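Why do we care about 3D structure at all? Because function follows from shape, and shape follows, mostly, from sequence. That is the central idea of this module. The next example makes it concrete: a single protein chain, its amino acid sequence, and then its structure expressed as tokens.
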Amino acid sequence: MTEQITNANDLPEAASRNQWWDVWDQFKTHKGAMIGAVFFILMVLGVTLGPWLWSIDPTFIDIRARNQGPSLAHPFGTDQLGRDILARMMAGGQISMAVGLTAMAISLLLGTFVGVTAGYFKRLDGPLMRLTDLFLALPLLPLLLVIIMLFREPLNAAFGPEGGIFVLMVCAIGITSWMQTARIVRGDVLALKEREFVLAARSIGTAPRHMVSRHVLPNVMSPIMVSATLGIANAIITESALSFLGLGFPPDFPTWGRLLFDGVDYLQQYPERVLWPGLAISLTVLAVNYVGDGLRDALDPRIRGR
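And the structure:
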């Protein structure tokens, strides 16, 4: 009798185990995801805390030290104006990370709103999905170029050269990259709204907005989190591509893409100028993609128990 009572008391503790612990246990088994997560965290800490440890101003011009190779004074060398490349890499990483995270947030909000609305409200499904198809059919790079050419000057006048191009970049990338998230979320909502607990909540007269916020949205967080990680990588690549084309931030405002653009003219004489920003972009995007793969496997209940 005592043994039965003890076992009965252990049941609530086992049942109360948070499912996120199971997700973490599965995520830890994905070696690539763990390495990617550690690298991404170190990269964020490096570009955030690095300027406090490496106090050289990334915009400081020292003509006497121009075009120097790696040394103790300048571990990554200097550019054609004598500016320290390590300092510019850290400053550029801050901008690239900020653009990636902010654009991802805008894309995620738009995609989640469209996906949940289209999946739950049948009358809005057709128009919203046709709008999504329209955005998917538009060529991304020419559309971004048109947006930048139209709104660069008004935003620069309103927020300044740096602030204006930052707002323009994150908004342009965000409003052109929400479609995949909307499609994924819509598919999950269509399957979810026929589940028993949703039907039971609807039968007792739960308002649609409460239904979406309390029952539907919390259960589609898995694809949203995976889309968030992939959205960061996509935003960093897009910003780097635009900066490489000379349509991003001003020349004295470094980003990884801008450093690539500046280093192309000196590729044969100083190949390391292209190597450092190229490696930073490639490894950061690769790390984020591995984290997304690990989250996808960890959040899938069919894989989690293996």
